[in-house]
Design brief:
With 247 residues, the chain is an alpha/beta fold. It is built from 8 helices and 13 strands. The protein has a single domain, classed as Ribonuclease Z/Hydroxyacylglutathione hydrolase-like (Metallo-beta-lactamase, Chain A, 4-Layer Sandwich). The chain starts with a strand and ends with a strand. The mean pLDDT is 97.
Amino acid sequence: MEVTFVGCGDAFGSGGRYQTCFHVAAARTRFLIDCGASSLAALKRLGIDRNAIETILVTHFHADHFGGIPFFMLDAQFFARRRAPLTIAGPPGLGEWVTRAMETAFPGSSRTVPKFELTLVELEPDRATEIGGVSVTPTLVVHGPPGEPFFAYRVTVDGKVLAYTGDTEWVEGLVEVGRDADLFIAEAYFFDKTVPYHLDLKTLVANLDRIRPRRLILTHMNEDMLARVAAGEVVHEVAEDGKTITV
């Protein structure tokens, strides 16, 4: 499979990066992991065929991971002239959040009937679900008050495993999410500062011997992390907007 970092930035545009959106091209399907508010512009900049995207997997409902859904939907309806089915999958409450996001961005838009089949799938933690030839297993992580749904994902497609932490402080569940993954995409918001709700590189590295990913790529970095990357202090591979890799 081919993975393109459409956007790998944080909520605040650190480094001038687009917000989180990963495009995965597998043998028989195309899908996104997250669709931050700036994702439509980033997809167009890279010339990615939006109508070929069959599924959008959402880790959580913060705007830098989910806020691009209204733009994607209305572009599909009125400009890309989409007719192919689209599935959006994510944590419990997805249906309500899609309506809320549409109404916040464009009042009245949630009542527009799309010209394509739209399926919303609310995923259950720790349960593998098959969606369009992709096996998706979500794990609850901690990126806000207890009880709110935030997911990390372990995705299997084309016989390969792609794991993604989502946004989270360190939780033990990340060991199983990323264990022996062919590609482990991990948040590294801070370099060595431990704070609630976000992952720092020091803590991640301390646990890599247990996770043992075949390839690690860091994403969702703040200005301090990006400065340390530029200074050569970060020895691990990092994401860049537009970077494409084969797994």
